[in-house]
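ingest -> validate -> predict -> emit
validate: passed (alphabet ok, no gaps, 201 aa)
predict: started
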Amino acid sequence: MAACQQQMEQVGWCSFADFIKPERLAALAAEANNLLPEAEELVIKRNIYQGAANADLADDNPASKEYTHRALQLADDQLAEDTLIKQLYKSDILTDFIRQVQKKPTLYRCEDEFQALNIVALEPGSWHAWHYDTTECTVTLLLQPAEQGGEFTFLANSRTDDDEDHEAVARLLSGDTSKANTLSRGAGTLTLFRGGYSCTV
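emit:
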């Protein structure tokens, strides 16, 4: 725990491999795959800050460029209360564990009926676009490994509440990933990262 707390503070992320026991992971993955026919294909065009691209800005300003996100996604309101994934999300033990990793005095689960919990699937022709998350910290659980690719790449701590490092982000968006972190994660890996402060794909 202490090592992960320190890693979150220093580099903005930490991961726990094999966080879910194999038999429970298999059940979670099967449940998600059974639900996927109900998923909507989301195609979202946005800049990296989750807003509309601003063509009036200089070309080297990251907010001036538009990126397309395409994926299958199940929203929280599509997940019944008795599903395994919803029960895991609402676990007080898990919530308190995440609170401790972030060194927060209190942590509340999101009540947004669409965004509290999502199942996201990337199929051939799907992709995540570069973006900042709208929350300080993002928690992901990988249920099924990618058949090809699937690396988690992000530029850690590339912004603060007071400063936008446009130069570093512009280099990233131009294809220079030399300063980015790239994680290869196996199924069952729980990852916490400072998504609101780290440009990720």
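DSSP finds five helices and nine strands in the chain.
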